[in-house]
Amino acid sequence: MQIYLIFTYKFSMINTYGILWEQIKGGEEVFWFKKKGGKPKAAIFVDYEHWYYGYRNNFQMKPNIEEWLKELEDEYEISRLYIFGDFSKYNIGMDLERLKSLTKNVIHTASEKDGVDKDFTDVIMLDAIYRSVADKENEEVYVLFTGDAHFTKVVQYLKELEKKVVIYGVKYGFSNRLKSEATSYVEMPRQSQEKNHYNELILTSLNRLRNKPKTTVTYGKTVKSVSEYNHVPYEKVKLALDNLLKQKYILEKEQMGYRGHMVTVLEVDWDRLNADGLWTEAE
């Protein structure tokens, strides 16, 4: 009974937005998805606000949705992809056209009605999931990108229908209750993605200094500069730099400072970084 109450509530909310569901149903499949025999059919639902703001606020990263979708395509036959979000804010709004190039099922969830909450992303996404089940497309797998506990009931409902429910959520914003209900879950960004992100921040900073020979590039200055410039945690930059030193992509050497004192400076092996695919020289 509780599920049906939620279901009815979502319908009433969506109806205040007119033909939203017709917009969703009328969308087209992602243009580069390929149907491949033997793979389970999957429906994908993405709360892009959760992904975008979770990455920006906690990791100073941006979602790489193209990479994620390619990864899913290796495992599933993707029958439909829906992306939900309030794109009225400038920063997240910059991603809108890129998302539209992946699917026409990009749903802008902001309300312009007076006295109505601006953001109904969860409500609209929940309604879309329930209605997709009613469409009887017979997807075996539902992949959700969200961390909100509000989705716990719909996950339970999908599992009652013998659907596999895979949930991706951003670290530090991923409900433990939601994790416990999923068939399987993945915390994002993965450790390797986060590591690569901090490596790139460090190398970009050091690359800017290559044409400034009078600049003394030291360990401490580098960590402090990268942390402050990118608004990222000092300890995470320090850990990433330590790993680059350990792998000998960056070396420490002694040289005479401008005041006649010996100082320990950083020297980057750009050729090795380039050969190992960790850095690409700009043309």
Topology, element by element:
Elements: H1 2-15, H2 20-25, E1 41-47, H3 48-59, H4 65-75, E2 77-85, H5 90-93, H6 96-100, E3 106-108, H7 121-134, E4 141-145, H8 152-160, E5 164-170, H9 176-181, E6 184-188, H10 191-208, H11 219-230, H12 234-246, E7 250-256, E8 262-268, H13 270-275
Parallel strand pairs: 1-2, 1-4, 2-3, 4-5, 5-6
Antiparallel strand pairs: 7-8
Structure report:
This protein is an alpha/beta fold. It has helices at 2-15, 20-25, 48-59, 65-75, 90-93, 96-100, 121-134, 152-160, 176-181, 191-208, 219-230, 234-246, 270-275; strands spanning 41-47, 77-85, 106-108, 141-145, 164-170, 184-188, 250-256, 262-268. It has a six-stranded parallel beta sheet, with helices on both faces. Helix 10 (191-208) crosses helix 12 (234-246). The protein is elongated, with a radius of gyration of 23 Å. The model is unreliable at 1-35 (pLDDT under 50).
